[in-house]
Amino acid sequence: MIESESRPGSESEPERKSRRYDRFRHRVMFPILDSRGNVIGFGGRVIGAGEPKYLNSPETPLFEKGRELYGLFQARRAIRDANRVVVVEGYMDVVALAQHGVENAVATLGTATTPIHVGKLLKLADNVVFCFDGDAAGRKAAWRALEVSLPVLADGKVVSFLFLPQEDDPDTFVRREGKAAFEAAMDAARPLSQYLFAELAGQVDMASDEGRARFVSQSRPLVSQVTAPALGAMLRKRLAELARLDPAEMAALMPATGAMAAPAAGRRAAPGRVVRQRLSHLDQLLSLLLQRPELVFRVPPEILPNDAEADALRAVMEFFAEDSTERKRKWRLTSATPRTSARLSSERKTPF
Amino acid sequence: MDLESDVDGLVARLREEREARRGRELLQLVESGMATPEQREEYGRHMESLRTLKSGNPPAEEMSDF
After folding, report:
1. Is B58 part of a structural domain of the chain?
2. Residues of the domain holding B38
3. Do A303 and B21 touch (CB under 8 A)?
4. What is the 3-state secondary structure (H, E, C) of A6-30?
């Protein structure tokens, strides 16, 4: 059963009972590796014209697009050395960048960035640069990356955004301009705070009170997701400046809560010492469920908050719940002999 | 390792956090005068449960099926 479920899916079955054909025919195949270097799936880019341009292996318990990043296994060392990773949109972007000496690049697998992606990358490097095309689709993808980054950001980590000219992608840019120019562009990438406020301010009339009020109401739910104390405080301060509110007015509108509140006296970290953030209850729960997936049934989904961090946990729980139910069903089918089936059937008739 | 009780403990903490979140939402609604009668009633129940907890008398445990 495991073997059939974890097959990378390089064949399709258009008609179940007729012939099979190669899913990736007429495509360049990109092997997708897990953190240990095992091939868990493939991406395929069509050669010449054709749709879809990119095609991936179907998802399996081993291959989930929301968890994996193309090139991460190969780029690990370069990411650690540079203390920076650049996230691009396409497999060919990763390949072209590596060919030109930018080896710390990874790509999402044709899906939006998830909190799991960002969490993985922030464990490897302090600096994450999202590099997207300058078109509408690229801007949308960048905004999504910003939203999922907010809850997982920690003080000392920097997420920034690089938009290439509309006619360029990382592949064409690095081929034409070279490694130094691409790295210079990464150095000039806009930090998350700048990008966040510039985007929101661009949607309203900041010269009017009404426009600034709208700006505050749109910024507030995003800024309040930041649990990193120093970054959260700076974002709130910047928001107050842009909205022309004094700090007291801003504090009344958006009180510092939980991790955003000032740390207690006496618990200040020594200078230069890296502070490991305490795991949230959701993180602790995720960790326990990963060790014992069957415990998922002890967690009522309705107790989870409605935010990106909980969404990730919810997805894991749904997966485990389905998996566990299926396993139990299969176990019953395979392990129940006619005799035990009869006994189970007779037991079901009793009131208890 | 007793992972079951760890999970149960975290579930209890998350439940408390949910109650606190809901309490804050209701408080804002009540204070802004936007709360519906049902929300006011829910807020009353919430405050009552807080009073019980803070007085040091936890609510009675559910009767065991056995």
Report:
1. no
2. 3-52
3. no
4. CCCCCEECCCCCCCCEECCCCEEEE
Question: What would the pLDDT profile of A288-344 be if each residue is shown by its tens digit?
Answer: 888 888 888 889 888 888 887 788 888 888 888 876 666 556 545 544 444 444 443
Nearest to A303 among B4, B6, B14 (CB): B14
Tell me what pLDDT residue A329 has: 62
Rg of chain A taking only CA atoms, in angstroms: 24
Interface contact flag, B11 A305, Cβ < 8 Å: no
Measure the CA–CA gap between A187 and B41, rounded to whole angstroms.
55
Question: What pLDDT is stored for residue A283 in this prediction?
Answer: 84
Q: What is the ipTM of this complex?
A: 0.71
Assigned CATH class of A72-197: alpha beta
Distance of CA A44 to the CA centre of its chain: 21
A235-253 as b/e: b if 16+ CB within 10 A: bbebbbebbebeeeebeee
Is A291 in Cβ contact with B7 (below 8 Å)?
A: no
Distances (CA, A) of A314 to A281, A294, A302, B9: 14, 15, 10, 18
Q: What is the pLDDT of residue A233?
A: 86
Interface check for A28 against chain B (CB to CB < 8 A): the answer is no
Q: Pick out chain A residues at pLDDT < 70.
A: 1-18, 255-279, 323-352
Q: What is the pTM of this model?
A: 0.59
Using alpha carbons, list the distances in angstroms from residue A195 to A143, A159, A205, B28. 9, 10, 17, 31
Is B14 a domain residue? yes
Specify if B12 maps to a domain: yes
How far apart, in whole angstroms, are the C-alpha atoms of residue A12 and residue A15? 9
pLDDT value at position B4? 79
Nearest CA of chain B to the CA of A305: how many Å?
Answer: 7
| Tens digit of each residue's pLDDT (9 = 90 or more) over B25-45 | 888 888 778 889 998 888 888
State the total domains in chain B.
Answer: 1
